[in-house]
Every structure is written in structure tokens, then in C-alpha cells.
Design brief:
The complex is a heterodimer of chains A (about 270) and B (about 280). Chain A has about 270 residues and is mainly α. In chain A, strands 1-2 form a two-stranded antiparallel ribbon. Chain A has helices at about 15-20, 20-40, 40-60, 65-70, 75-85, 105-130, 130-145, 155-185, 195-200, 200-225, 245-265, and strands spanning about 90-95, 100. Chain B is α/β, with parallel strands linked by helices and about 280 residues long. Chain B is built from ten helices and ten strands. In chain B, the strands form two sheets. Chain B has a six-stranded mixed beta sheet, with helices on both faces. A four-stranded antiparallel beta sheet of chain B has the order 2-1-4-5, covered by helices on one side. In chain B, about 50% of the residues are buried. The chains are: A mainly alpha (about 270), B alpha/beta (about 280). The interface of A and B includes residues 218, 224, 234 and 236 of A.
Chain lengths: ~270, ~280
């Protein structure tokens, strides 16, 4: 179950999307998320879904891989859709006890659902096509101006890249601990919500202990390899914009322009 | 002076209890003298808690002696200014392969060290390629470390150190978490570095089989060096080794028992072939 989360995992391939500058992909993801909130019509959603579909096609990441990532957010998705459906006032479609489901609510829930799904796919497409190191390099470069106001940009970037690298390792570890505890009679499935949360304790305690131990080891390994912050550090893969990056920016600008234009004229 | 020299090194771990009482002193290293010549293959043996890992961390300036001095290539590890120079000269490989790989792609991880010491971009690529070739991992350069086997991860870690062009590599139980195949892979890579590149290797381990090809073996117990010599010299003293809770290789043990039972064979036999030859000749 935990392995299904694809956010933060890299899918190695040689597509154009993989070779794009991470700054472009990061800005692109931001633009895409913003566009999802600018679009406010079914046609708009269709356009953004098509745009994403084309991107997925270009990325050569198998669709199976991306859809798997969605499983993890199904619960969140259903909850937010449910609340939107019942709390939106309007024309009542049907009523059970005091819960009224309205037409407006259903439409809103559908829109929220579409937005969330597209948002997650869009964001995971970025991490699937960009190695965390590239991603943080990109972020570091994008945020460099903040260095002037004493924001530790390099440190933040390093922190994120390490966090991303350890996600799959900690997932695996969680799975392992879970199995070990189940073998000892722990029960993670039954009972009500409070019980379930309480049952998580024997899972979380060992996980935290091992995470701290790993952090300790890793810090030592980094120091042993001469890591001492961003000063005087060179880069193996420095970021240099190429022609394809300019083209990608142009596509993004066009896409955003369409989104804004559609909103303005009210389609 | 050799590449690594220690003079009367002492290291105390301080254990603090809660209420600001006097810390409890735990002596991990107790007066260690060492002189390791450049280009040698050195093994340091000892059971758990003998202080061998603590000693290893001193050679990389991760720990600084409480008393005494340790020099790496004539640089005193207690000097704060030299710390990065020392860590570049004496690379370190740790036990857990997962917890020392920083990059998410093999080649990026190998490039991490050179990036830190400020090597220009073109040269980093060259060094990464070189280091991966030397450890036999070049065909995995674009892979994710998560999908490699333990032995392969450890070879990536070694490549990460090699890319910093160290004079000396310290391996702190690099094979403890590996299966027999992984262990062989890692040792072969280390031995090749020592023989072909002339890198000084200090292998810290408790597997006796791994030290047979070392130039010199040190045995540690409760923070002291209690035995030193060539593997043959060390392994001829089966009973002393047992006292320090170390197992000798099975062949050596068998040869020792045979000798005790009155068979005329030399002491300190290390390999099966040697034993076979000795037995054939003794008739």
C-alpha cells in the first residue's frame, strides 16, 4: 500500500521532459497548478487534462505508474468531494435524514475531484521526470535571490533532496516494521478510527528511532565526504538553459495565456 | 612517518545522565600507537565494542583524540583548519550502504565528494567515470541506488570515495550487512584499488577470512592494540585469538587442531591449498 505513493520517485527514461531544465519543470508545474484554479469551466478542465495527457505521453512514463500514485490520495479525494457535495447550498437532489445533496454540490465536488487528480498527476509528473538532485538544484537557483536576505537557500535545497531520497527507504522500512509487528500479533486493520490510530504506535516508534539513526549515519557520511555547506561547492551538473528550455517556456506561456483568456471572456 | 600515524591516542566517550551530574567516562580507545606505511593493505580486527570503529573515525577526523595525537599524511587531525584536507586524503566507507548514499542516481552520488571539495565541473565528470570504472560499476551509472544490491551499493560508496582521489581509504566493516557474494565483490574491488592504484587500505572487520591477504593485521581489544603482525603470524596464535573472542578461519582452526593432535604441519595455515600441500608433504 505504501509503495504506491509515486510522489518523490524518479522514473528513469530519456524523454524530452526528462532532459528539460528543472527550473522549467518547476515553473511549469506551478503554472499548471495555477491554471487549474484559473480554469472554471468543463472546457477548461478538458484543455488542462489534454495538456497533461500530452505531457505524460511525451514523458514516456507508463500510465500505470502514474495512476498507482493516485491510489494513495483516494481517501483524501473522497472526503473533500463528500463535504463539498453535502455542504453546498442549492437545489436539493435528494435527502437522507439531515444530509442534503444538492446539484450545485455535486458539480462542485466533481470539479474539486478533477482539480485534485490533475494536480497530483501534474506534480508527480515533475518528480517522476526530474531527479531530486536536479529538482533541488533548480529550486536553489530559482531561490538564489533570497540569499541576499539571509535565507539559507543551499541548506534548504539540500534538506529537501535528502528528504526526497529517503522517502522510498522509509516506506520500505515502514512496510518491514509493519510485517514484523503483524507477525507478533499487532492489528492495523480492525477497530474504529481511534483504535486504529492507537495501533499505529508500535509502528511509529521503531520507525522514528530508525529514522534518527539513519540521519545520524548520513550526517557522518556527508561530513566524511567533505560536505561543509554551499560555500566553495562546485556542481557536477550545473544548470544551463538550452533551446528546448526556451521552447518549453513558450509553450507554458501560451498555455497560461489561454487559461487567463478563457477566464476573462468567461468560457 | 607513514600515511597514518597515531601516538598514544586516547578517546573518552562522555555519557551524560539527566540531572547535570558528573558525566560518566567511557574509554573507547586506550593508548593506541600506529604507524601505517603508504600503499599497504592493513586490517584491523576486533569483536564488537573493541574500539575499532572509534579508531576508524579518528583517521577521518570525525572524532578527535581526547589525549595523544593522530596524523594523517603529516596533518594533525586536531587542527580545525586541516579537517577538510584530511577528509579528502583519508576517505571513509561505512557499514550501512543505505545510510551513506546521498545521491538518487549512482553518478550523482559519486560526484558528491568532488563537488564538496570544489573540483571544476569537467573534472568531476572525468573523476566519476574513472571511479566507477575502477569499482566496476560504470554500467550502473544512471541507475537509482535503491535498486542495487548491497554489494553494489557498497561499491558505489567506494567509488564515491575514490572520486575524491584519497591517499588512503578506511572501510569500517563494509561487508557486515552483505551476503557472501556481496562481500566478495566489495573485497575484490578494494584489493584491486590497493594493488593497481597503490591506495592505502585500512579494512576494519570482524570477518577473519577478509584479512588473509592483508599486509599487516592489528587486533584490538578493549581499546588497545593487543596483537600485530602478518596474517600468518596472527593466525598461528589460535588460542590467543580465541581469548579476544575472535574466530580464526576454519582451515586454520583445523590445521591447528591437527597440529595439536601430533600431525607434523607448520602453524599459521591460511588457505585450503596450503593445508592440502602441508598434509601431502608431511607423509
Amino acid at each position: 500500500m505504501l509503495r504506491d505513493i509515486t510522489i518523490g520517485q524518479y522514473y528513469p527514461a530519456k524523454s524530452v521532459l526528462h532532459r528539460l531544465d528543472p527550473r522549467v519543470k518547476f515553473v511549469g508545474t506551478l503554472v499548471y497548478i495555477i491554471s487549474l484554479f484559473i480554469f472554471n469551466s468543463w472546457i477548461g478542465y478538458l484543455i488542462s487534462a489534454l495538456f497533461l495527457a500530452v505531457m505524460v505521453k511525451i514523458s514516456t512514463v507508463p500510465l500505470k505508474f502514474i495512476v498507482k500514485g493516485l491510489k494513495a490520495i483516494v481517501v483524501l479525494l473522497l472526503i473533500s468531494m463528500f463535504f463539498n457535495a453535502i455542504f453546498t447550498p442549492g437545489h436539493v437532489v435528494f435527502q437522507v435524514w439531515i444530509i442534503k445533496i444538492t446539484e450545485e454540490g455535486l458539480i462542485l465536488a466533481a470539479k474539486i475531484g478533477i482539480r485534485l487528480i490533475l494536480l497530483i498527476i501534474g506534480a508527480s509528473l515533475m518528480t517522476l521526470t526530474t531527479t531530486p538532485n536536479q529538482l533541488t538544484d533548480g529550486l536553489e537557483r530559482l531561490m538564489k535571490p533570497l540569499n541576499k536576505i539571509h535565507v539559507p537557500v543551499h541548506e534548504i535545497a539540500m534538506l529537501m533532496s535528502i528528504a526526497l531520497r529517503f522517502i522510498p527507504i522509509l516506506m520500505e522500512e515502514t512496510d518491514k516494521i509493519m510485517k514484523a509487528q503483524i507477525a507478533r500479533g499487532a492489528d492495523f486493520e480492525s477497530g474504529n478510527l481511534i483504535r486504529k490510530v492507537k495501533n499505529m504506535v508500535p509502528l511509529l516508534v521503531p520507525l522514528f528511532i530508525s529514522a534518527f539513526r539513519r540521519a545520524n549515519d548520513l550526517a557522518m557520511a556527508m561530513e566524511a565526504r567533505c560536505y561543509h555547506g554551499g560555500d566553495g561547492r562546485t556542481q557536477m551538473k550545473p544548470l544551463i538553459y538550452k533551446k528546448r528550455d526556451a521552447a518549453a517556456y513558450a509553450v507554458l506561456a501560451l498555455y497560461l495565456a489561454i487559461a487567463i483568456a478563457m477566464r476573462v471572456i468567461g468560457i | 612517518m607513514g600515511i597514518i600515524k597515531a601516538a598514544k591516542v586516547v578517546f573518552d566517550y562522555l555519557k551524560y545522565s539527566e540531572e547535570g551530574q558528573e558525566p560518566e567516562v567511557n574509554r573507547a580507545i586506550d593508548g593506541v600507537d600506529l604507524d601505517i606505511a603508504e600503499g599497504q593493505f592493513i586490517a584491523i580486527l576486533g569483536h564488537n565494542g573493541s574500539g575499532k570503529s572509534t579508531l576508524a573515525k579518528h583517521m577521518n577526523a570525525l572524532l578527535v583524540p581526547t589525549e595523544g595525537t593522530l596524523w594523517v599524511d603529516s596533518l594533525d587531525t586536531a587542527e580545525d583548519d586541516d579537517v577538510w584536507k584530511i577528509r579528502q586524503k583519508a576517505g571513509m566507507v561505512f557499514q550501512n550502504p543505505d545510510n551513506q548514499i546521498i545521491g538518487t542516481v549512482v553518478e550523482e552520488d559519486v560526484g558528491f565528494g568532488p563537488e564538496n571539495i570544489g573540483v571544476p565541473t569537467d573534472e568531476i565528470w572525468q573523476r566519476v567515470e574513472d571511479a566507477l570504472t575502477k569499482t566496476g560499476m560504470i554500467s550502473y551509472r544512471k541507475h537509482s541506488p535503491n535498486k542495487l544490491s548491497g554489494g553494489q551499493k557498497q561499491r558505489v560508496a567506494i567509488a564515491g570515495v575514490v572520486a575524491m582521489k584519497p591517499k588512503c581509504i578506511i572501510l569500517d566493516e563494509p561487508t557486515a550487512m552483505l551476503d557472501p557474494n556481496g562481500r566478495k565483490e566489495v573485497l575484490a574491488a578494494v584489493r584491486e584499488l590497493n594493488e593497481k592504484e597503490g591506495v592505502t587500505v585500512i579494512l576494519i572487520t570482524h570477518y577473519m577470512e577478509e584479512v588473509i591477504l592483508a599486509d599487516k593485521v592489528y587486533v584490538m581489544d578493549s581499546g588497545r592494540i593487543v596483537m600485530q603482525g602478518t596474517p600468518r603470524e596472527i593466525f598461528s596464535q589460535v588460542d590467543t585469538l580465541k581469548k579476544y573472542r575472535l574466530d580464526v578461519p576454519q582451515v586454520t582452526l583445523l590445521a591447528d587442531e591437527l597440529k595439536k593432535a601430533g600431525v607434523d604441519i607448520p602453524s599459521g595455515i591460511l588457505t585450503i591449498e596450503e593445508l592440502v600441500n602441508a598434509l601431502c608433504q608431511s607423509n
